[in-house]
Amino acid sequence: TEQSLLQIHNDLVTLAREAGQMMLDADPTLQPPTTKKNTSDLVTLTDRAIETMILTRLSASHPTIHFLGEETSKTNQRLTPNPTFICDPIDGTLNFIHGFPNTAVSLALAIDKIPVVGVVFNPFRGDLYTAIKHRGAFLTTPTRTFKLPLNPIPRPLPSLSSCLVALEWGSERSGANWDLRTRVAKTLLSAKEDGAGKMVRSIRSSGSAALDLCYVAAGQLDVFWEGGCWAWDVCAGWCVLEEAGGLVVGANPGEWEVELEGRRYLGVRGAKRGEQRGVVGEVWGVMGDG
Ligand code: IPD
């Protein structure tokens, strides 16, 4: 019910703020990070401690809701239609390790594999992004709360060539998603073939897919594109972006309905589902058959 979604939202906000304090209290330079798959796929003790804290607290307060977390999920664990908390204890772990203050705890609730509550908190800026399905998206800074997108409402997007695009690199440096990322990045940064300007104004890669989606929701970036991230990276930011009037679709051409576990996502502010002409269609065009 609406009431219980609000309760869950409030509980996730409390946990996100506590997790944020754990990040601020930690000194990642004192902890040797553990390598997961390669030298840019890292995890710290703080990632694990935060996820344990969140899992313990949520299984006590909401024992019937399932849990999918970046650090505790089992290989091949699949998201089911059951109500499920989706947790990335630190989205932007590399930033956290390097002290680059663009990192966040990302908590969401998905029902029927659709994000219905999203909470993204960056403790280094004190910025809290929240959304409940059908109830709008908000940014709470240390001094005030804003409805998203921020005012003045950003102008509509006439075309990709006026967009600032978030494109993330993940930790893979070979394979299909790597080939796709490098090809898409190169095309987006190129001049148009007809000589009429550039494909996009520029791209940004600031190391947190969750925050990228929130920046698109705010209207500070226009597009988020990534091939190769995971449900826990995007679930909360997805809810925030859609509640701010944006759209999350698949990064694969024609994929208007993307699964939460689809691993290739395109988020666009102010876009409408099914509107093939426009920024979504232009990005799909860049991807080609990729
Ligand atoms: C990563 C970040 C990064 C994205 C990766 C994610 P993590 O999350 O969101 O921006 O490129 O694909 O895995 O590992 O720091 O939680």
Give an overview in words:
The protein has about 290 residues and is α+β, with helices and mostly antiparallel strands. About 30% of the residues lie in helices and about 25% in strands. It has 7 helices and 14 strands. It has helices spanning about 1-25, 45-60, 95-100, 175-190, 210-220, 230-245, 280-285, and strands spanning about 35, 40-45, 65-70, 85-90, 105-110, 115-120, 125-130, 135-140, 145, 165, 200-205, 225, 245-250, 265-270. The strands form 3 sheets. The chain has a 7-stranded mixed sheet with strand order 3-4-5-6-7-8-9, sandwiched between helices. Strands 11-10-12-14-13 form a 5-stranded mixed sheet, sandwiched between helices. Strand 8 and strand 9 form a beta hairpin. Helix 5 packs parallel to helix 6 (about 230-245). The N and C termini lie far apart (about 40 Å). The mean pLDDT is about 95. The protein binds D-MYO-inositol-1-phosphate (IPD). D-MYO-inositol-1-phosphate binds near residues 93, 169, 209 and 226.
The computed structural class is alpha+beta
Count of β-strands: 14
Query: CATH superfamily assignment of the largest domain?
Result: Fructose-1,6-Bisphosphatase, subunit A, domain 1
Question: If you compute it from the alpha carbons, what radius of gyration comes out, rounded to the nearest whole angstrom?
Answer: 18 Å
Family: Belongs to the inositol monophosphatase superfamily.
Binding site for Mg(2+): 70, 88, 90-91, 233
EC number: 3.1.3.25
InterPro entries: IMPase (IPR033942), Inositol_monophosphatase-like (IPR000760), Inositol_monophosphatase_CS (IPR020550)
